[in-house]
Amino acid sequence: MLYVKKQTLHKFVQDVFMKVGLKTEDASLASEVIVQADYSGVGSHGIARLTQFVTRIRKGAINKNPRITQINDSDNLISLDGDNGSGIVIGPKALKLCIERAKEHGIACVTLNNSNHYGVGNYYAWKFAEANLIGLTVTNTSPCIAPFGGIEKLFGTNPLTIAIPANKHYPIVLDMATSKVAYGQIERRAIENQKIPMDWAIDKEGNPTDSPLEALKGSLLHFGGYKGYGIALIIDILSSILAQANYGKGLGNVNDFENPKPEKIGHFMMAIDISRFQPIERFKNEVDKYIDSIKNSKRAPGVEEIFVPGEIEFLKAKENAIKGIAITENMGQILLDLAIELELAGEEDNI
Fold first, then answer.
1. Element (H, E) at 160
2. Which of the ends of the chain has fewer CB neighbours closer than 10 A, N or C?
3. Which domains does the chain show, CATH number per domain?
4. By C-alpha distance, which of 116, 115, 118 is closest to 81?
């Protein structure tokens, strides 16, 4: 196992993105989102996806120099066209605008269409919380889930992320897919040749399967059955119809590396300025008390600590700030191979 400082990994990822044509500022933003995932322990959305992003950029599925434009006339209910930019570039830019306008108007909503995968959700949540805002962001993704009762893939994992700031405690951050498990977890099991639980997915015929390969050919399942399906459907409408983006079969497949196409997905963001309701410190102190009431409540047998949403990721980031971000030797070799291919390293270099 290798351990790399956050700044070192950020510089490497930024260099990779610059090498494939992103401007320095955009490459830095993209790197920030990628590294945030590994830093907070969400490895499925971090450097494990770097070659995916690079391949899509190099094959022209992503616009390297997008021009984001507003397509409606409003100061705090804003509809943006992302010009097929990388989601990990135009997503953070939309987030920044959402935060600025919420501070100015008390509340702001931003939609973004003509986008691509925008990375780990907690990147956006942490920024909302740092700005003392309640924030929400949702996105649709490449189809990999059938509707409840169906077998045809029409929904993505359609993640939901919500941030609520606190004072002495870490912010509450709900960051979850509407599938039972993230798509990346299925991919990882397939690579490692491991079976999956029978209630994670169905094969292409609609039968439960413990094979990750059959699951990838078939469909993941929503959490909570019809309830998760209903939440995913609402997220789909906010991210597509409201944002004027595509949905279902109109979306590109982010995992198609042979003939990649623009994903044409959309995002919805909302920020609320708490200080318009009450003094921000009062609110954050009350959130602290609320968290204390949960963490100090009686625990089930064998449970050492009760966590609130997002706490584990903050604790992982604290650990990684000291130890460095863990990278397996296999992943290290993949990154070295990519660096050699892009002439950022030589054949004589090693991990």
1. strand 160-164
2. N
3. 1-59+310-350 (1.10.1530.10), 67-179+222-308 (3.30.1370.60)
4. 115
**How many of the other CB atoms lie within 10 Å of CB of 233?**
16
- Cα(135)–Cα(129) distance, integer angstroms: 7
Return the structure tokens found at 170.
Answer: 């870490």
User: How, if at all, do strands 77-81 and 107-115 pair?
Assistant: parallel
Which residues, 6 or more positions from 130, have their beta carbon under 8 angstroms from its beta carbon? 165
For residues 261 and 252, the answer to whether their CB atoms sit within 8 Å is yes
At position 142, the amino acid (one-letter code) is S
The H or E element that residue 229 is part of is helix 226-236
Mean pLDDT of 260-287: 98
- pTM of the prediction? 0.95
Residue in 112, 82, 84, 92 with CA at minimum distance from that of residue 33: 92
How many Å is the Cα radius of gyration of the chain? 20
- Closest by CA position to 49, among listed 64, 31, 66, 71: 31
With a CB cutoff of 8 Å and minimum separation 6, the contacts of 207 are: none
CA distance 183 to 100: 32
User: What is the distance between the alpha carbons of residues 272 and 209, in angstroms, rounded to a whole number?
Assistant: 42
Residue 184 has pLDDT above 80, yes or no: no
Could you report the per-residue pLDDT of 299-328, keeping only the tens digit for each?
999 999 999 999 999 999 999 999 999 999
